[in-house]
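User: Okay, second chain of the day. Same drill as before: sequence in, structure tokens out.
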Amino acid sequence: MGGWKLEVFRMACYVTFPLAAMFLFSRPELFKERVIEARKRFHPPPNPERDDLIQQLKDRERLRREAEALEQMSHFQTKQKDSHAT
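Assistant: Same drill. Structure tokens below.
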């Protein structure tokens, strides 16, 4: 078995390695271009035509859900009236 010196060395490695890796690899100049490219890929420039189409789809889906909810409510209300009438 190792002694206390080995344990101190291991602990120093456990602490030093992540800190050194963070210092070496988290510098902005190393990944600035990659971040800019990723931002362009995930957040494309605004396109009014596409935005209008997306808004139309959202509105159509909202109207469909509202109509479905109203139908379910009216069905439930008629069911309740029928059960109270009997």
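The helical segments are 4-25, 28-42, 48-85.

User: Thanks, on to the next one.
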